[in-house]
Structures are given as structure tokens and as C-alpha cells.
Design brief:
This protein is an alpha/beta fold. The protein has two domains: about 150 residues, Aspartate Aminotransferase, domain 1; about 220 residues, Aspartate Aminotransferase, domain 2 (3-Layer(aba) Sandwich). The chain is built from 14 helices and 14 strands. It has a seven-stranded mixed β-sheet, sandwiched between helices. Strand 13 and strand 14 form a beta hairpin. The radius of gyration is 21 Å and the shape is globular. The mean pLDDT is about 95. The structure holds 4'-deoxy-4'-aminopyridoxal-5'-phosphate and glutamic acid. The site of glutamic acid has 8 residues, from helix 2.
Length: about 400
């Protein structure tokens, strides 16, 4: 069978394939520490489980409307109003297969072959590949050395006649940085002036620490819900840790939602009614469900920061949100894939190479595992990389002697 050149050029998702690596090692009984993961360890909120069970019990197993059930769209509209003060109705909402599905539909709706989409490094692994899948061209803007936040003037310089959209992800996967309000406002104005879409990937927007809130792009616009250039993307994967339920959404002007619904109708029809019921239950559930998850991640962030401080020569920026951090490992080698391989093979610690996020020399470490695993993972990293650390380490049932430094 001969594959299309486009399909052959699409890279594997490194984050998902590392999940599989960690799973396979665990199944083999290896004492692997998974600091590569992008999903918290919580259970589904009760309100979500009950709503889903009630729907199944009622025997309703049919297609839902393409853009989502009335109940869920209503709940998303309410959530949007409460979270951003942006007043929209159900017709401004489309429910998709995860935030990933929403993002893909939006890119498909905006991009013609050869059009450019500006992506800000460090960026989530799937943006460039999705842009390529709709035959667009990703244009990467890098932050100043040592930082994770782009300069407005660098973004402005990257926008050209072919630019159709800018993707902004703050709080940011992989760095945990939250973009300052002035930058967000500047980016929104830039998009409005140039007539391009501002895609706000808000999947982590509530997962912020130390009493912070995430600056909202909607605060920066004087447009209304039907004229705005802002398309926000969100979902239940991170908000409620319900990654496997695959429910996300886009909020956009009604005319855009209509186009997105046509795309969805011709591809996946709709998402599962059972899972939409669960998402509606989660969104209508008590805020305590979400707050418990957020505060446990903040406590884990603190543990991770304390443990990484013990590794000499590592440069770490304290994340303001998400459940990731992106330390600079260049003191231990410039090749992040080689470093990640060494840590996996010698220390059984899964990390994600910074190269995958456009930040070579860094490793993404996630702290959505247990505090105990974070401590053990950081101790193993130090042992594997730091010549001053004791030569021997107990890994699972074996004592391993470091002979590679
Ligand atoms: N955007 C970012 C920045 C992410 O990290 C993820 C990770 N899952 C997604 C989108 C996709 O989320 P979902 O699971 O809802 O598809
Ligand atoms: N977004 C998470 C991550 O970056 C989950 C995996 C994925 O969808 O890429 O690890």
C-alpha cells in the first residue's frame, strides 16, 4: 500500500508514545517512574460518574446533535460566562473529541494549503503536526534565551500575508508559564489589527497556583461574540482530569461554529452522548471537585521544585500553572533525546525531550504523579547525571552501579 506523502510525514505523538512505554515497562514489573505523563491521577468527579450512569441506565444510546447536546452546550456557555465574563449562548459552542478534536476542526476551518499558523515555543507537540495535516505551515516564534514567554515584537515580526492564525497556550504546556496580561492583550490586538484568528488553547487555564488567575484574551477585546477573532478551546481532560472521556469544545462566533459543525458532521458525526452527559455532570458539579485537583497539583509542584533544587547545575523556572515544568539540562548535555534515553534506560525514569516542544537541551517533567514518585524520580535523575552523587542506587529490587560518567 502506498501512503500519502503527507501521512508519511506526520510524526508520532511523543507524549502518547511515552505513555505506552511507561505502561509496557510497568506491565513487565519494572519499577518505572513516569514523569512524562500528561494526566493527573484523580478519579472522575462523582457528579460526572452519576450523570453518565443515569444516561446509560436510561438506554439512550443514539447520535447526539453534531455540535453537542443542548445540556452540555448550555453548561459550556455558562462556564464561559463564569470563567471569562464572556457572554455566549449554546450556538457559540461546539463539542468535539477532546480539545485535540476541537483544535483540529478549527485549523481545518481556517487553513488553506500553504497558509501559515504562528506557534509560540515552547509549544505543545501536536500543534506543528496538526498544522501540517491541514496542509498549512507552522511558523515558530522562540522566546528570549532563558525564558518561556515570547516577545510581542517577535510575534509581530512573524505575522505575514499568509498568516491565518496564532495559537496561544497559557498556562503553557510544557513550561508551566502563564503569559502576562499585557502580552495577552498585545497579542489579541495584533490579531485584530491583522485580521487573523487568535486560537486560545485554554486547557490548563484553571490549573494555576499561588492564588493566580490566567489573564483572559476576552478582557483585551472590544469586539463582541460574533465579531471576535478569538476562538477558545477547552475541555474536561485537564479541568477534571477526565482525559479518557475525550470531551473538549471550541467557543467561537456562530458563523464559525456552523462551519466547524459541517466539518464534524462529515467526519465523526458527534461525540458520545454518554461522555457528553459525564462532561455536563462535571461542569455542573461542586467546585470542590476541581479545587481538590488544583491544590493537589500545586502541592506536587512544590515537591518537584524542592527535589530539583538538589540537582546541581540544573536551571529550573517555577511553574505558575499546569502540571509540567521544563528544566534546562544543558549542563548535562545538549541533546535532550539522548538525555531522556539515558534516564529511561539507566534510571527507569520517563521524561519528554525538550526537542519535541521546540526547546532542545530541556526535559519536560510532569508532577501529576504522586509526591513519592516525584521524590524518587528526582533522586534517580540526580544519581544518573551528577558525578558527585553516590555511585550506587537501588532501583526497584536491583542495586545499580553508575558506570557511564
Ligand atoms: N492542548 C494542550 C496544550 C494539551 O496539553 C492537551 C493534552 N491533552 C490538549 C490540548 C488536548 O487535550 P484533550 O485531551 O482534551 O484532547
Ligand atoms: N497533553 C498531554 C501531554 O502533553 C497528553 C498527551 C497528549 O495528548 O499529547 O502529555
Amino acid at each position: 500500500m502506498s501512503l500519502s506523502a503527507l501521512a508519511s510525514s506526520i510524526a508520532e505523538s511523543p507524549t502518547l508514545s511515552l505513555n505506552e512505554t511507561a505502561r509496557a515497562l510497568r506491565e513487565k514489573g519494572e519499577s518505572v517512574i513516569h514523569l512524562g505523563g500528561g494526566e493527573p491521577k484523580n478519579k472522575a468527579p462523582r457528579s460526572a460518574a452519576q450523570a453518565c450512569a443515569a444516561k446509560l441506565e436510561g438506554g439512550d444510546v443514539k447520535y447526539t446533535p453534531t455540535s453537542g447536546t443542548a445540556g452540555l452546550k448550555q453548561a459550556v456557555a455558562r462556564y464561559t460566562e463564569q470563567s471569562y465574563g464572556w457572554s455566549v449562548g449554546p450556538a457559540n459552542v461546539i463539542v468535539c473529541d477532546g480539545a485535540k478534536g476541537a483544535l483540529f476542526n478549527v485549523l481545518f476551518a481556517l487553513v488553506d494549503p500553504g497558509d501559515e499558523v504562528v506557534v509560540l515555543a515552547p509549544y505543545w507537540v501536536s500543534y506543528p503536526e496538526m498544522i501540517k495535516m491541514v496542509r498549512g505551515v507552522p511558523v515558530i516564534v522562540r522566546p528570549p534565551e532563558g525564558g518561556f514567554v515570547p516577545r510581542l515584537e517577535d510575534v509581530a515580526a512573524a505575522l505575514g500575508a499568509k498568516t491565518k492564525a496564532l495559537i496561544v497556550n497559557s498556562p503553557n504546556n510544557p513550561s508551566g508559564a502563564v503569559y502576562p496580561e499585557e502580552l495577552v492583550a498585545g497579542l489579541v490586538r495584533l490579531c485584530e489589527e491583522r485580521g487573523i484568528a487568535y486560537i486560545s488553547d485554554d486547557i490548563y487555564h484553571k490549573l494555576v497556583f499561588d492564588g493566580r488567575t490566567t489573564p483572559s484574551p476576552y478582557r483585551a477585546t472590544d469586539q463582541d461574540p460574533e465579531t471576535t477573532k478569538i476562538i477558545s478551546i477547552n475541555g474536561i481532560s485537564k479541568l477534571f482530569g477526565m482525559t479518557g472521556f475525550r470531551i473538549g469544545w471550541a467557543v467561537a462566533p456562530k458563523a464559525m461554529v456552523k462551519v466547524l459543525a459541517r466539518i464534524q458532521a462529515q467526519t465523526v458525526s458527534c461525540t458520545s452522548g454518554l461522555l457528553q452527559a459525564a462532561a455536563e455532570g462535571a461542569l455542573n458539579g461542586p467546585p470542590a471537585d476541581f479545587e481538590a485537583l488544583r491544590s493537589s497539583l500545586q502541592a506536587n509542584r512544590d515537591v518537584m521544585m524542592r527535589e530539583l533544587a538538589a540537582i546541581p547545575r540544573l536551571k529550573v523556572r517555577r511553574p505558575e500553572g499546569t502540571f509540567y515544568c521544563l528544566p534546562d539540562f544543558r549542563a548535562y548535555g545538549a541533546d535532550s533525546a539522548a538525555l531522556a534515553r539515558l534516564l529511561l534506560e539507566k534510571a527507569l525514569v520517563v521524561t519528554v525531550p525538550g526537542r519535541e516542544f521546540g526547546m532542545e537541551g530541556h526535559l519536560r517533567l510532569s508532577y501529576c504523579t504522586s509526591a513519592e514518585e516525584i521524590r524518587e524520580g528526582a533522586a534517580r535523575i540526580r544519581w544518573a547525571l551528577d558525578p558527585e552523587a553516590p555511585k550506587q542506587m537501588r532501583i526497584g529490587s536491583k542495586t545499580v552501579v553508575r558506570d557511564w560518567l
